[in-house]
Amino acid sequence: MESAGRLDFNHQLSLSDLPYVIAWNNERCTRCGRCTSVCPVKAIEPGVMEQRLVASTGSTPLPSTIRKVASCVKQATDIGRRCIGCATCRLVCPNDAIEPVFNSANKYHWHANKGGEPVKRGGRRNDPDISVLDKLKFTRISMLTDPALDAGRHEFRVRTLLGRSLPPEELPLKLTGDGLIPDGMAFVPPVREIFPIRIGGMSVGALSPTMWEGLAMGIAYLNEVEKIPVVMCTGEGGMPPRLLKSPYLKYFILQIASGYFGWDEIVHAIPHMQCDPAAIEIKYGQGAKPGDGGLLMASKVLGHIAKIRGVPEFVELSSPPTHQTKYSIEEAVAKMVTAMSLAWGFRVPVYPKISGTKTALAVLNNLARNPFAAALGIDGEDGGTGAAYNVSLDKMGHPIASNLRECYLNLVKIGKQNELPIFAAGGVGKHGNLAANAAALIMLGASGADSGKYIMQACAGCLGDERNRCNICNTGKCPRGITTQDPKLYRRLDPDKVAQRVVDVFLSADKELKKIFAPMGRSTELPIGMSDGLSVADKAIAERLDISYAC
């Protein structure tokens, strides 16, 4: 028994092995129990401790020892219940008696893989360094332009096009004695005028009902009241039938991924739709986990999610890495894009979304030859995800800046840079600079940028960061109630406040984009590919992106 006891003790983890250690103040704590009740992973629990007190009393005070048992807060050393650093305990503590402290000497990665299964997590890669996008500066400022172009005094619309733009010689017009008249026999690709920052794909299921409702309300308000045409991608998994048949569908991009979850509901709703969706996005890859399919953990597949997706409750929903009926880029583009275009009578832009990789150019060149392909979405390595292997998040993928630049310059070579738009994603707003990052991508060649995790951080107070804080989106235990289907957790989130923050974020981004573009003399169109307006104080980056080096 003694040998077994030593063995058990020897294989326990210590607090110094964990990424976050709870600092608890015994004197301030009133033992109210709020901290232990709100911890989403049960990393802390009520406990007891033995206290040794030395006291001197009486007329001849000799020191005496008193021992007593007192209640306390204990931290679990089980790796499955490790503290995630969300600090929800500190938020509810009335006396500021508890907080998690980051342990830079932790050995989490040594112990995280249990049962032979690599560890999965949500969030974004653990890379606290400044990204390439944050290093870029806007240096082409004209001192001789009309002062009315100052962003604070000149009102202009910041818009971009989602859809293929035909070159002049292919426009559906014919010349007659009276001038140009429409040629009704020619095919006109569908095009939408949208705001250049879109909300990236976050599905019903990955997000909680309150979070998704808040985003949807915010998007509707921006379009209906503020007249800013912001669109949002649904992610894989479909939409609630009520929303599919509502007049607000036109503000959403429906995503179809390799699992085809939720598409039965969408197809059945087509005859009853009051309007067309903004676009159809065919997801082939995700920047945070290139080569992997989607994954919705069983803990999130509750009744309402199962009904929308047409699956049983509490089953793990994994999408294949590729669309199983397609075996080449050419076949995938030709079949999927054409099929989706036919479903909506060629009235809706259809485009694929791929991971940022070295094969992106092959996809782009194929799309350029397909008249029905409306755009290309490229998702870089810094994109977030609801669930992925650590090794995918930290060691796989391609930075978006160089991948986008390479693709745009290739379009320039073949003369289609004004025809096929590219939408870039992956770390946009990673350090809070949403408008600046989007503007930099636009000037590198994108027609617009997608952002997901920034929206969660800015609009719902997501606690995750690049130091592996929180990042448990995949478990359904989100302490903020953002990425969970547990009513006890998502009721913490007020959808009205989320909607208000969505509106605030995009109104601010609209002003910031004007502030960046106006001094460049751009008040009628976006400076897509205007790379002479960018500089960077890093020669390697300047050479790779073909922009100015300035220091």
Walk me through the structure.
The chain has 551 residues and is α/β, with parallel strands linked by helices. The protein has 2 domains: 2-48 and 76-112, Alpha-Beta Plaits, CATH 3.30.70.20; 133-164 and 193-519 and 527-549, Aldolase class I (TIM Barrel, Alpha-Beta Barrel), CATH 3.20.20.70. The chain contains 18 helices and 23 strands. The protein has an 8-stranded parallel beta sheet. A 3-stranded mixed beta sheet has the order 6-22-23, covered by helices on one side. Strands 1-4 form a two-stranded antiparallel sheet. Strand 20 (422-425), helix 14 and strand 21 form a beta-alpha-beta unit. The longest helix is centred in the C-terminal third of the chain and has 23 residues, at 495-517. It is elongated and about 120 Å long. The model has no long low-confidence stretch (mean pLDDT 90).
